[in-house]
TrEMBL record:
The gene is Wars. This is Tryptophan--tRNA ligase, cytoplasmic. Gene3D superfamilies: HUPs, S15/NS1, RNA-binding, Tyrosyl-Transfer RNA Synthetase. It comes from Cepphus grylle (Black guillemot). Residues 13-69 form the WHEP-TRS domain. Its EC number is 6.1.1.2. Signal peptide: none annotated.
Amino acid sequence: MADSPNCDLKSLSPLQLFERVTEQGEKVRALKAGKAPKDEIDAAVRMLLSLKLSYKTATGQDYQAGLPPRDLTLINNGTTKEEDEDFVDPWTVQTSNAKGVDYDKLIVRFGSSKIDTDLINRIERATGQKPHRFLRRGIFFSHRDMDQILDAYENKKSFYLYTGRGPSSQAMHVGHLIPFIFTKWLQEVFDVPLVIQLTDDEKYLWKDLTTEKAYEYAKENAKDIIACGFDVNKTFIFSDLDYLGTSTGFYKNIVKVQKHVTFNQVKGIFGFTDSDCIGKISFPAIQAAPSFSSSFPQIFNGKENIQCLIPCAIDQDPYFRMTRDVAPRIGQPKPALLHSVFFPALQGAQTKMSASDPNSSIFLTDTPKQIKTKINKHAFSGGRDTIEEHRKYGGNCDVDVSFMYLTFFLEDDDRLEQLKQAYTSGELLTGELKKVLIETLQPLIAAHQERRKQVTDEMVKQFMTPRKLAFEF
């Protein structure tokens, strides 16, 4: 960051101010460690104190390293509004708006950057490939440091991908496919290694599961992930319950993160209480560790400077805000992130789906008949109460779940726009729109089920065995 105090700090959100203070603190430490001239150190310290004062003015609290401010949306004159605000954390997503979470506000609250046309065009130039529909349609809408990833790639420097899955049930639903569909595209167009973390330890700690059942779910979910078409020579899938005990590099990074994050900080970031078990409190360090290449010595030959790019839903961002704060203090590069929107439940976009509610989504195990019944019976409609009203006033694509699902799974942009115009004008009825979705999802899920049948236990073992991948480091 620049040292100039002339920048308009009042325009920054509390989280952006927090990150500015953190970066300036790192600069001060680096100057002192490098024995820089005293006047240079003094100027950096003055800037740090000024930033801390701005942070306290904006938030009403002193800066604490590793403890970002609670999410608030600044409105007129710096006042805050808590009524009708969206609530997002790694376990809960709630909004009172039928359109779903306000992602523009979420970008401000989380202090990330919007994926704009310029960035999408740059990705297209770098890869020589048409941007994925998830980029074209704003499904992946926010990022941290994607420009740095592209800088590295354009300068022939490698990076790697990291994403994950919390195996809370044997069957995954279509919403779970979103990060894997996009990650597969990223891996193919950039040709980089991929690590996939199965957090069976997390599910044991949070759910009423035995360790044996959590590990069984991990292996079953791995089959669905493999069925997405990942290359075994370029992809390592691992279970925390399995891999953590075999990798010294992975555990060393966990311990380093744990040393630099206090109990008070994880309470502030994740809302833990004194009644939570110590396993929950220490888990964020386990999700942080795959962000560092030294956690996978068999892949990266022990190198610690390979940057990581993490495609994930934005509810996972608190884990990686913590990770990005800690990374420079343990000598590691900060991971970059690409954030997706939430996949809505069939009943509406006010919440994300639950694997424990069979009617909240379409599952990858559903039959064609089940898919048809669920969509017709449970998919929230943006249509009018009567056919006459619908023909006259048209439907609302912003709240219609069938149309939302089509934005995820219908590849043809022109066809999607035609459906939007026809539904909005009243030409297309709700039942007809649902029929299009049914005809889109039935063959997609049937094809996935067929690929999954071909995934054997031996294939799962291959993907989950620590090994060198088809890259040289």
